[in-house]
Design brief:
Elements: H1 11-22, H2 48-60, H3 65-77, H4 81-94, H5 99-111, H6 115-128, H7 133-145, H8 149-161, H9 167-179, H10 183-196, H11 201-213, H12 217-230, H13 235-247, H14 251-264, H15 269-279
Length: 281
C-alpha cells in the first residue's frame, strides 16, 4: 500500500492557510496534521473476482505467507480492513520475520483506530529490516498524526536517505517544511514527489500553496489547476483555486470554486468560510 494518498484533511490547516494567504503573509507554522498518506479506496482491488483469484493462489499454497500478504493488501486497498487484518495476521503467523506484513498490518491497524498496535508493528518491521523505507514512511505518518513532528520528519528523512522511490516520503517531508514556512525546501520536495508520481494530485496542490506563500501566483495557479485536473474530487484543491480567484478580486469565479469544494466536502470549513465571503451581497 505504497501509493500517494490523502488522509482526512484538518480544518486547522485550512484556517491557517486561508488567513495567511489572504493577508499576503507567509503560511503560518502551526499546521498539526498536513495531508498525505492513503490513497482513495479502490473497490476493484477488493472485488469478488480479484479476491477469488488471490484466494485460489492461497488454496494452492496454503503455507506460503506471501499469498496472504498479497490478498491482505488487496482487501486493504478495497477498504475491507478486518479481512485485511486477518490475512496479515496469518502471514505473520506463518513467517514471524515477514517485515512487509508487519508494515502492512500497521497501516490497517491505524485505519481501525489502534495506533498503539500500529506503532508496535512499524517498530517490529524496522527492527527486522532497518532498511525498509515503507515502514519509516508509515511510522512517520503515524507520528505526524500524533503531532510528533520531529519524529515524523526524522522518519521521512531516513526513508529518503535510503534512496526511496516512494513519493510519499518527499511529499510528507515537504508538508512539514511547508508548515514551518520553509517554502523553498517544500517546493523542492513536492517537485521530487511529482517526478516520482506524476499522476498524484496532492504534491501539485502542496507545491501550489508554497508558491502562493512566496507570492508566485502564476505557478501556484498552474499547480492547483493541475491538482484539480488529476483529481476533480479534491475539495482542498478547489478551495485553493477559489482562494487565488479571491485574491485576484474575481468573486464570481471564487464563489463558484468554493461552492464546488463545499459540495465535495460539506464540512470543509475554509471552503464554507470562503463561500460566505464571496457570496455576500
Amino acid at each position: 500500500m505504497n501509493a500517494i494518498s490523502v488522509e482526512r484533511r484538518t480544518a486547522m490547516r485550512g484556517f491557517a492557510l486561508t488567513a495567511a494567504l489572504l493577508s499576503g503573509l507567509a503560511i503560518a507554522g502551526c499546521q498539526t496534521a498536513p495531508t498525505g498518506e492513503f490513497t482513495n479506496i479502490d473497490k476493484a482491488q477488493g472485488s469478488a473476482e480479484n479476491i477469488s483469484s488471490l484466494s485460489a493462489v492461497i488454496q494452492r499454497s496454503p503455507q506460503d505467507p506471501e499469498g496472504y500478504n498479497v490478498r491482505g493488501s488487496a482487501y486493504g486497498r478495497g477498504g475491507q480492513y478486518k479481512a485485511a487484518l486477518k490475512d496479515f495476521n496469518t502471514a505473520i503467523q506463518l513467517n514471524p520475520n515477514f517485515y512487509q506484513a508487519y508494515s502492512n498490518r500497521a497501516l490497517i491497524q491505524r485505519f481501525l483506530g489502534d495506533q498503539t498496535a500500529a506503532l508496535a508493528d512499524y517498530n517490529r518491521s524496522i527492527q527486522i529490516n532497518p532498511d525498509y523505507d515503507a515502514a519509516y514512511i508509515g511510522r512517520g505518518n503515524l507520528y505526524r498524526k500524533a503531532n510528533r513532528i520531529q519524529d515524523a520528519f526524522n522518519d521521512f528523512q531516513k526513508a529518503i536517505q535510503l534512496d526511496t522511490t516512494d513519493a510519499r516520503a518527499y511529499h510528507n517531508r515537504g508538508l512539514i517544511y511547508q508548515s514551518q514556512g520553509q517554502h523553498a525546501f517544500a517546493i523542492e520536495d513536492f517537485s521530487t514527489a511529482i517526478s516520482l508520481a506524476p499522476d498524484a494530485a496532492d504534491p501539485y496542490n502542496g507545491r501550489g500553496l508554497s508558491y502562493l506563500a512566496m507570492n508566485d501566483e502564476d505557478n501556484a495557479f498552474a499547480d492547483i489547476n493541475m491538482a484539480i485536473k488529476l483529481d476533480g474530487k479534491n475539495a482542498e484543491a478547489w478551495s485553493n483555486q477559489a482562494l487565488i480567484y479571491e485574491r485576484r478580486g474575481d468573486k464570481a469565479k471564487a464563489a463558484k470554486a468554493y461552492r464546488e469544494a463545499v459540495r465535495l466536502s460539506p464540512t470543509y470549513q475554509p471552503a464554507k468560510d470562503g463561500l460566505a465571503r464571496t457570496s455576500a451581497v
